[in-house]
Write a structure and sequence with these properties.
2 copies of one chain form a homodimer. Chain A is α/β, with parallel strands linked by helices. Chain A folds into 2 domains: 2-146 and 287-337, Alpha-Beta Complex (Quinone Oxidoreductase, Chain A, domain 1); 148-283, Rossmann fold. In chain A, 30% of the residues lie in helices and 24% in strands. In chain A, helix 7 (197-206) links the parallel strand 10 and strand 11. Chains A and B meet through strand 13, helix 10 and strand 14 of A and strand 13, helix 10 and strand 14 of B.
């Protein structure tokens, strides 16, 4: 099959690789209807994470089950499914506690930017759609494999409540989905920190009540003005850099929680401030499977349309251009059609 | 008046200093009935915190109001009161959110190891007892000024629930009070990590179901055995050293929260583990005033007796011996009678 591989920083190729096979009786093979590029794919792309040259890359897709192992009982060929970026059995103690991303059977071998993908623990991992969706619905469904569930997890982790005053740090796809999540959860004030007009527009459509373009001390002052000098009840940190984390804790009020979902890179936490002001940190790799049924319902009922974060669609052969567009922030999120 | 002062590492003296005066109309002066030494007093004592030579030290006491400012309306001379270690107006947005330790009017000038102390924001800070208590009740009441409220805060921050499996790191007065708090909150399993027999005994009396003497990887293995390989639902970190914090995160299950109340010194957080396993961190300086009414009720009704953490009582003139005894871990907590 054709799949996206990475050979070094900024070296993305489409190559013929062996078709995935059922390695375990709990596996399924899914024919990818659409995949996409994740902000976290940019870490290895930029050389910030180690790379194994020639490895496949990509972990978000939707598609049709074409083969199942002998122990898969809930799915069969023909089912159209959403594939969460991390697989899980959904029965271990960590899954039952809602942390499917720490499943004892997690297996991260999916490749979403390809023609086929292997899904481990298919019964636990996959969620079926109601029939084969129209391709117009693909973008919204694709967000459920990662970014929408991750933005949702940021809001849950930050303990957003009805009436909360929320700040979202980061205007990537996850940050924008975080705005949408906070809005669905009834936040009263939602501040999106963004300097890009196209992203500001989506943030506003998703429910942001305020846009703050400033950063550093000016950004802090703007948030303090908006929150009557108190700070935010809940902060969604959707970037993972040291500067973004610092901003998140700066704007948090005493007793607030920072919900973090950006993979941390070079972050030093302000432990003294956290202690003296009782500002907590919660979150991490999103347990996508936990939220999938609820989010799928919100999407199929038309209550939310997170698919708007996609602003570029490319055929698989042009996936390298998709990486370039996201790296240069010309695109928020890129759909890849195999 | 006579007060405890610190002149350098391990240089504690009792000296004549000016009596405290009403500096603000919201102040009260309290005649100390009993004070005590806090584990956090040992940081400057050991030279780990900066010292202003000759400064008074100590921040925990109970006693009788002897003078109030013109704007104090809820207290009058003769009232017997519990003095939380940090003062607060109990009306600002941070107080109303339950983070009285971040009150916009916090003023840390109390001196509890002395004959008199000034209490800022008396109306907000103080809590009255029902008449003048018998001196036999002083130890339990003294714990409410700091250690019992702090152990309680650790348990609240770690989100201890009925049925929780809890690990308490630290067998000082705060850790022991954390065990008691977890027990009152209905935890099913409470593991006290302690190597001192006298402290183990109190931990068991306070509700610990298991004692783990081992540290490092052996301690981790013991906790895993006790929790069926899953880890703790909630961890109370009551020390503040890097080793204690590392242990706390090691034994936490995915999705758990570490409630930290030990003042952090030289701590590096395991951010990668926190992210990949969704282990949160919450807590900080305890909002004592928030918990005081509830805890006072638990003490006066006889439901809890946290006063057992006191195992040495000294007159004010011998306060330096009290510091030595706590520094050398010969005493858990020392009551000082002026």
């Amino acid at each position: 099959m054709r799949a996206t591989t990475i050979h070094g920083p900024r070296d993305i190729r489409v190559e013929e690789v062996p078709d995935p096979v059922l390695a375990e009786p709990t596996d399924a093979i899914v024919q990818v209807a659409a995949g996409c590029i994740c902000g976290s794919d940019l870490w290895p792309y930029r050389g910030e994470n180690p790379i194994r040259p020639g490895a496949t890359i990509g972990h978000e897709c939707i598609g049709e089950v074409v083969e199942v192992g002998g122990e898969v009982s809930s799915f069969r060929p023909g089912d159209f499914v959403v594939v969460p970026f991390c697989h899980c059995d959904n029965t271990c103690p960590h899954c039952l506690a809602g942390i499917q991303s720490a499943c004892v059977h997690t297996d991260g071998t999916a490749s979403g930017q390809a023609e086929l993908t292997r899904v481990a623990q298919a019964d636990g991992s996959l969620v079926r759609t109601d029939g084969r969706p129209d391709p117009a619905a693909y973008p919204a469904l694709l967000t459920l494999t990662d970014v929408m569930a991750t933005g949702w997890h940021a809001a849950v982790s930050a303990r957003v409540q009805p009436g909360s005053r929320v700040v979202v740090v980061g205007d990537g796809a996850v940050g924008l989905c975080g705005v949408l999540a906070a809005s669905v959860m009834g936040a009263e004030t939602i501040v999106a920190m963004s300097r890009h007009e196209s992203r500001q527009r989506i943030a506003t459509d998703f429910g942001a009540t305020h846009i703050v373009e400033e950063r550093g001390s000016e950004g802090f002052e703007r948030v303090m003005d908006i929150t009557d000098g108190v700070g935010a009840d809940a902060v969604l940190e959707c970037v993972g850099t040291d500067a973004a984390v610092a901003t998140a804790f700066d704007v948090a009020r005493p007793g607030a929680t920072v919900g973090f979902v950006g993979v941390p890179h070079g972050v030093e936490l302000p432990l003294r401030r956290m202690f003296s002001k009782n500002i907590g940190l919660a979150g991490g790799m999103a347990p996508v499977r936990r939220y999938l049924p609820e989010l799928l319902d919100l999407v199929t009922s038309g209550r939310i349309d997170p698919g708007r974060v996609f602003d570029l669609t490319l055929p698989l052969d042009e996936v390298a251009e998709g990486y370039r567009a996201m790296d240069e922030r010309r695109a928020i999120k890129v759909q890849i059609n195999p």
